[in-house]
Amino acid sequence: MGCPARKICLYVVSCFVMTNLFSACQNKSTEKTMKTTVVTPFKMTVSTGGGVTGLTSGYSLSSDGVIEHWQHFRAGTDSVLWSEKTNVSRILFFRKQLEEIGVLKKNIQQRGNMTTTVKLALPDTTYTWYWNASGKSDLSRWVKDVQRFCESMKK
Questions:
Q1: In whole angstroms, how far apart are CA 98 and each of 37, 127, 141?
Q2: pLDDT tens, per residue, the chain with 155 residues
Q3: How far apart are alpha carbons 47 and 69 in whole angstroms?
């Protein structure tokens, strides 16, 4: 038959090859699960206000999942009423809806006594749309959905 040393050597080499193959497969599956979607930083702001008091209140939704409810007085004082962290996917959903409405290609700028404003701030561009709060816009329903969601986050 064969030399026992040769059998042992073949056994060791086979074990080495199998271990490396198993290790390589395991690393690839780990790489697949570790991949995450990189989101370009952005901030969406929805607000309504103006009028006699000059009070504007709104929500800021950041790409990192932070939602802030804030107020701004004409005198220049700002206050954050509350801040909560939410699942980033929900904020990404609102941004996707905003883009699907098609407003990135529209110029909506009609102020009123009370004005609703939507702002999308990207690293290289800021889009701003505003209209009379009592009027209608392509964004009116979207704004209501965002406001309802934000209010549901308040603890």
A1: 20, 11, 11
A2: 556 555 554 555 555 545 554 454 454 444 444 455 667 899 999 999 988 888 999 999 999 999 999 999 887 788 999 999 999 999 999 999 999 988 888 888 888 889 999 999 999 999 999 988 777 777 888 999 999 999 998 86
A3: 10
The two three-digit tokens of residue 129, written as one number: 């749309």
Q: Give the Cα separation of 139 and 141 in Å (integer).
A: 6
User: What pTM does this model have?
Assistant: 0.72
Burial tier of 100 (Cβ tally within 10 Å: 0-12, 13-18, 19+) = exposed
Q: State the angle between helix axes of 88-101 and 140-153 in degrees (0 to 180), rounded to the nearest 10.
A: 170
The domains of the chain are located at 1-35, 43-153
Domain 43-153 indexed as CATH 3.30.1560.10: yes
User: Do strands 78-85 and 66-72 pair parallel, antiparallel, or not at all (unpaired)?
Assistant: antiparallel
